[in-house]
Amino acid sequence: MESVSSPLRCFGECHTAEKYTDDGVETVTSVEQRKVERSIQEVVSVYKQIHSLPPTLLRDQHYQYLKKGLRHLSDAYECLDASRPWLCYWILHSLELLEEPVPTAIASDVCKFLARCQSPTGGFAGGPCQAAHLAPTYAAVNALCIIGTQEAYNIIDREKLLSFLFSVKQPDGSFVMHIGGEVDVRSTYCAASVASLTNIMTPTLFQDTPTWIVSCQNWEGGLGGVPGLEAHGGYTFCGMAAMVILGKEHMLDLKSLLRWVASRQMRYEGGFQGRCNKLVDGCYSFWQAGLLPLLHRALFKGGDSTLSLQKWMFEQQALQEYILLCCQNPAGGLLDKPGKSRDFYHTCYCLSGLSVAQHFGNMDLHHELIVGREENRLVIVFSSLQAPSHPVYNICPEKVAQAIQHFHQLPVPVPAQKEGSSACNTTTDHS
Amino acid sequence: CPIHQCPSNRKEWADLEPVPQDDGPNPVVKIAYSDKFTDVYDYFRALLKNDEKSDRAFTLTAEAIELNAANYTVWHYRRVLLQALEKDLREEMRYITAIIEDQPKNYQVWHHRRMVVEWLNDPSEELEFIAEILSQDAKNYHAWQHRQWVLKEYKLWDSELEYVEQLLEEDVRNNSAWNQRHYVISHTTGYSDPSILNREVQYSLKQIKKAPHNESVWNYLKGILQDRGLSSHPGLLEQILELKETHCSPYLLGFLVDIYEDSLENTSGDQVEVLSKALELCELLAQEKDTIRREYWSYVGRSLQMKYCSDDPSTTSSAPETDRGSASVSVHQETTCNS
Which cofactors (chain A) (predicted)? Predict the structure, then answer.
């Protein structure tokens, strides 16, 4: 195990040379980028002056912030009133990364709440009495798997969930996010994730889905939300992870994808941008950096013998420094970049990215690189899908294994209806 | 709750029993809703429960949307009402225009606009509207998604390349605009015609000379040439090597690696020189010019070596750093493929 309590990359002499070169041609893009670099430089120089300690993950502060949020949220969260299962997942996953146990009572309360978010016609909604939607469905199933009790598993109505998935399936292989809703590649990841965890995959459920996902890969090498769109970290992760779940990752141009994502790490900031020529954001620590373990495994599976045995193909130390120095709110919670407010989404994905950057693993190996103190170490997010580790689900591997083991004891439900048959104008999902 | 603001204070709602949100006895992630929020949504739930399709329901959806524009259940219900009550869709266009101006980064508002445009079968306002939104944020992903849908659905390609060029004139680093350039050309002339391809290569080189450290243009150049093979484009290598003297960047060096790799892949005969140059560049990028991607460039070097080293592969050690250290590997590299 490697512990870097000594030279930080961002303290090095060569670091300033990594700043953006605008060639004397100022545009909105270069102006914005330089503003961010200046704020990062400020953070780094303040850190140099007042901190003699290595970078520290503010565990206690984050824990207090998360613990409170699991119960109460201010009215600033009205905008997430249709995403409450997400709030459960972001908070529970952050706690599990910090190795903070969730008290049994509150875990049970989460289960009961998510049960109220489950739609009578299957799938989960953003809140009680709302319509089912693939995103809160993904979040709810993940949250329940993190809890991992029988009570949690039993909340999920697998038969109805399967019929919900069929009801949003499109003839071209894609999925709409909800009845009467939009299509994009997030939906395929949400569907593949919940279907594989709860063992409800049928032979036709994902028919043509891999081909559709492949059509989202563009000239840049990454994936867009739908075919034709600009390559974007969030959508690329969703597409790649879905392909891994479906066992079809080799259908993508992995070399181009690798080049694209490796190029998304910012040379000065150390964190990742979501798209070429855009700004760094802490959440891409997971969406982008999380692609590298997936690619590593896919290339390995494809027979590649030149892969590293110790490191992912991104600068792990630089990412950890960005998260620890630039993305922590001193009062708890993590964020996009300096100057932004904390929120539970960024807390979840900054911590998830930190874990990816700390841990390297493959079939037999596990190698750690912890920037700062030992205590900064987080739990791994890899999951073993019968093979090497990879952050497909973004919940801890033990919870993935346990859920899969539980649901595979149950028979795959028999689909009651064919795909697309619920495309009717009802105000709700009630039949 | 202030009069006129909450449904519960208005007489037109007197007959309806509001439905409070039931989070259960021990709520989690409980949001401290304002009184107005609670009230509006209590009545919305009541309408939903009764499946009421009325004008007051329609009006209430606007209030619910204003409080949380991400509530996709409300948007769906509003669409049901638009059809059931045969509402004026032109007015709805005006409404959705205002909402998008206010909250341009929301999924539901754009999807709603798409539905209304489809129902009206009238895209005539779209390109101008989207351009207006892009003038405020030239990279708004939803705006570009909507634009691509409009262009394709209604075949409105005629002025789009011109629009893209205008955006690139304003910001040559706008990657969304480069993507749109690729989208338009792919869906119109395509890149097969050599005169089109050449035009695009020349355009790209021109932009490179203006701002050599703009990653987008280098990616675009590679993107349009890679299917035909980078090394097959006559004179390109020479032009890039020339640019290397005055307009060098990590992107140029990476592009050279790509040309050399393509040459190794597609040219027969002895490629020792080419491999050597490629490996030298990977080393330069990894150690000096693009160190943030050191692990990546090292991997690329190892892969090239593995694939193209003319020695018997079984004697070439391809394993990267091992726990025993890399000394044995690098010595072996020196005696086989000299860089």
Answer: Zn(2+)
